[in-house]
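[stage:ingest] chain + small molecule (S-adenosylmethionine)
[stage:ingest] validated
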Amino acid sequence: MSNVSPSTSPHPAPALHELREDGILGDVRAARRGEDALSDLAPDAYARGHAAFEARSDQRSLISGHLAARLASRATGPVAVLSVGCGDGSLDVPLAAALTDVVPARPVRYVGIDPYVGSTTAFASAMAALGRAGLSAEVHATTFAEAPVSEHFDVVTFVHSMYYVPEVASTLREAHALLRPGGELLVVNAPRGALNILVDVLAPPVEGHRQWFSEDIPAALTRAGLRTEEVITVDARVDLEGASDEVLDFTVQARLTPALRPLVRAYLDAVSVPCPTSGVPLVPHPVDVYRVRRAA
Ligand SMILES: C[S@@+](CC[C@H](N)C(=O)[O-])C[C@H]1O[C@@H](n2cnc3c(N)ncnc32)[C@H](O)[C@@H]1O
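[stage:predict] done
[stage:export] tokens:
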């Protein structure tokens, strides 16, 4: 996959936003100075905004390709996957189907965890609709910390959900403890970067903490006593030109005020890069994949 690159030290170069502190980002910060935190997104608005955001990006298909390749390395025998922050299953359901199809009627166990019941209901329906004989799917409508999971898994994934956990190191330790010997923990998390600096500046705290980005993971792995086997970066792009207010709110993870929207749109224009083929301005939104293996 050409837009996937190994990365031992993700994002060492100065991020674009660091060059823009005197520009539009500075104006966004100035507009927020001394103000109360913006409102967070209701779970249904978050889920709708997320779906619409993904439709404007090539990131999900790139992540899906990467995860499918990791899962394909488990070519025989039963396999068990836990997806933390599974959402509505848009990513996991095709992966579950591919896992069962590669070896017909192979026992595949697929467990999801997500606190938003609207998403877990969709996840359960979509898994059931697959109608695969060997597939046993289950979903828990709760947070990772509260989920009643005691079984063990070959693969545990956090795809864009580590931002929200109360503490990264203890979460990594608990997730690692759910792996079978030889199992893999895959943490797919975006860097702060040109796009997510907006989240840092604009999103309200999640249960008292800022959102955790890719830059927070290496130190947390060390605190958890875990070693990364590999980190790769997936270089994705999103088209946010003319995006709806709901997509904009998802992008910054907050309900924007009418005064902030033009500033945010101007910032996104400024950090966009023309697509080499179509010329459409696209915002880079890379994502890092941390892989940790439990000793066999
Ligand atoms: C950006 S979405 C990603 C959904 C899915 N993994 C995907 O890639 O389509 C993040 C998900 O994490 C969930 N989430 C938030 N806090 C969580 C927590 N503490 N434990 C588990 N999931 C959480 C949200 O409800 C949301 O569905």
